[in-house]
Amino acid sequence: MTTMIRDDGPDLDLRRELQPTLGLGPVEPLSRNAVTVAALVMGAVGLGAGLLFGVGDSLLDESAIMIMAGLVGVMVALLAATRFWFVVVGMFVVRASLDALKLGHFTNGSSALDPGVVVGLVFLAAGIGWLIAQKRAGTLQPLSGPTKWFFALAASGTFSAVGSQNIPSSLGVSLKIWAGALMVAVLEQVYRQNPARVKAILAAGAASLVVPAIVAFKQLTGPQQLEAYLEVSRISGTFVHANPFATYLVILAVVGLAVRPHLTRWSRVAANAAIAIATVLTLFTYARGAWIALILGVVVVGACQDKRLIMGVVVAAIAALLFVPSVSARLSDLGKTEAIGNGDPNSLAWRIKYWERLLPLTEENPATGIGLDQVLERSPEKLMPHNSFVQSLVETGVIGLTALLGLIVSTAWVLRDVIRRLKPGLPRGIAVGAAAAATGWLVQLASENLLTQAAIFWYLAGPIAFVLAMRSSLIAQDAAEAAAEGDATARHDAVGGHVEASTLLEPTLLDAAPTR
Asked: What is the DSSP track for 156-214?
């Protein structure tokens, strides 16, 4: 059974909905042909540019990137005004390729004209406008607890600018968290109106792997550039560093693994390909945190769906240790105790000492921290904290750390409840995939800089927002059943025990008619 996808609801013309407020004249939405052409051009620009720059094409200098950033921004803005849902799906396809076009680099942040930043800013404006349109149309549903905590985390990033020595920088970085929170809020509302639209997001997430994978395989087979302190060549795809690339790959791999039993024909073939590619590439990022995240994610899927996967992950791990020497070499360096510093082969020991030096900075402003991105600017090494808990405490204070912990706990509670209550099928498969991806993300918080990774937030939002929407449906179903039971009891008392069967019918989550 499937749900019809209506042209109203999430695709409401923002300008038409906001016309009474903004005083706009009559507006005709773009024709479907125009939307299709514009979407294809936008996708081609984003994917093509990411591919060319990712493989090192010298034709793309900073001027060309700035022009493309402006072009992509204008196209996204125009499309968002009439076909917001198309824009959201398109963003999922191209977002993973845009970091290859950064004008900044990993250690000194982003330029305001990076295509990824431009797309994020346009989404912020369009997403807020869309939510306002839903409010005016009377279709905006109350936000879930995890979404509220996510917005609290974003707000703490903005508040952190109070104690920042570079207020514009801290405010700019906080927008990345706002973009992540807004994506969760938007998708949660969309899924409540039409749960079947999660299929488009899952497909877009799988499609987003194409360009990063092409670039990564070229890096893997091309001239090897060894990292001095690792003695291995790490692939990063279209991302600015191997670690966030690995986090992205883990999300795709475990979500694909969880949903593939519920797919058929070509969709299952595509899922199998995405799982295989993402898993292999994760291995060659040499990101140890991502390796652990992938293993735990597969264990979560196995525990919830097929326990044979647990034995499979054990066999695969042993095979990697035996047949890929660089894997065992990457793990063996944890026992080294050589010189402390940026080039220390024992990166874990260096990170622990780095955290110990950062934590006293909290004393400057315990409530709101020293400001987002300020560890990068103020530390002699010019390096991020490599621990999202330390980063949230130092840069956003007790308020930010509380919001982060609230987000983690509330999300875990919702995931557990939904997985426990849903029957086997695609919705439960998505919930299991969301739990596996969230587990991997949580594990990596202790060793990676994920607090302001907008792209990671977006790809996590796809399945997690669906779980949040499903829990709202389950709560509504509980209320309906309680009301029906109360009516049945009253009717039983009135007619001497006769109960109408129609009062006991249960609604089907994915077959309910979408609301405007």
From this structure: HHHHGGGG-SSHHHHHHHHHHHHHHHHHHHHHHHHHHH-GGGHHHHHHHHHHTTHHHHH
- DSSP 8-state assignment for residue 59: T
SS (H, E, C) 134-164: HHHHCCCCCCCHHHHHHHHHHHHHHHHHHHC
What is this structure's pTM?
0.80
What's the full length of the chain, in residues?
A: 516
DSSP 219-233: HHHS-----TTT-SP
CA distance 236 to 365: 36
Residue with tokens 């299709």: 36
Q: What are 313-323's pLDDT values in tens digits?
A: 888 878 777 76
| 3-class secondary structure per residue, 31-71 | CHHHHHHHHHHHHHHHHHHHHHHHCCCCCCCHHHHHHHHHH
Tokens coding 3: 């749900």
Average pLDDT along the chain:
77
Determine the 3-state secondary structure of 401 from DSSP.
Answer: helix
Tens digit of each residue's pLDDT (9 = 90 or more) over 164-202: 888 888 898 899 999 999 999 999 999 998 999 999 999
